[in-house]
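Hey, does this match?
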Amino acid sequence: MNSVVIKKEDLRYNIEKIKKYAEKNLPDDNGNKVKIIAVVKANGYGLGIVEYTNFLIDQGIDFFAVSTVDEVLKIRQAGINQKLLMLSSTSVEEEVRTLIKNNVILTIGSKEAAEIADKIGEKLNITVKAHIKIDTGFGRYGFVYSNRDEMIKTLKSLTNIKIEGTFTHFSNAYYDDKYTKLQFDRFINCIEVLKMNEIQTGMLHVCNTSAFIKFPNMHLNAVRIGSAFTGRISFKNSIGLRKIGYLKSNISEIKELPSNFNIGYSNVYKTKNNTKVAIIPCGYCNGFNIETGKDMLRNVDKIRYIVQDFKNLLKKQRLYVEINGKKHPILGRVGTYHITVDTQGKEIKINDEVIMTSNIKYVDSNIKREWI
């Protein structure tokens, strides 16, 4: 009954917008334009990893990136053979072997990861393709930017690995311009040192979606685009992207509730009068009303978030759905698999379609995706 609806026209519009924005930068010294690497992790940001990847291929995108071995296997088993970069560095031998056998470009971000990949490449008599990751201040994958001696020594020792690219990842490009520029400078400095030591760095890329839009001067050879394709970004949408996808359900029950009747968990809402309600079989476990983690917000945003939550609680009604083209408030809290909607005075019936605004990245991957 529940599904995610994706309008191809809107997605195609965003892809063209992003291509044109990338093309604003002049070609590099070799005449190459900025390469778009489409990040299709998290089930293709909720669009469905296989369908989404195929759609991007039809629109001329030919380089992709994911974060897990499972995502790699879904893409390869679907017969998709385009360039594929594994963004996470791993030293787990079984994972590295699987990635190499599936013709995936590895990310190498440590001495251990490099040694494992080099050893497996030798055993399989394969030259392993890899991008080097430099940790410029995220604290996750990558050679720490200040530990250059280990990085240089490790990279010079490799005999079965071809370095096709080098990259870093920004921790707060959506808000902290100063720190983003510091990370960028650290990265460029490391690249210069690697080149001075005759280490090939290949394609250079640092921009995620937010940096791509905010810092055109940082585009370098390639950019990694994820959420921008869906138009669901955590900062000002300055290039006119459309939000892609919405959650759809249907009314499963209609009932009359008496006045002073509690609705939902914790009894946060009580009817004031006799109220006609509809029950919609869709809740937070389906991905409705799930938002981006608060760790992505500035302190001031976190305070605003808490204040807004408090205001919403006082109002008792903070979310709406659309039924027959009209907005209907949700009563009480969103449940695991259900919501209760106020339909008093409205003409509605069982099985009427319900449209809900939701970040589709968090919608259960088992829910059907409808491309229209």
In short: The chain has a mean pLDDT of 91. Residues 8-230 form a domain with the TIM Barrel fold (CATH 3.20.20.10). The chain has two domains: 8-230, 246-371.
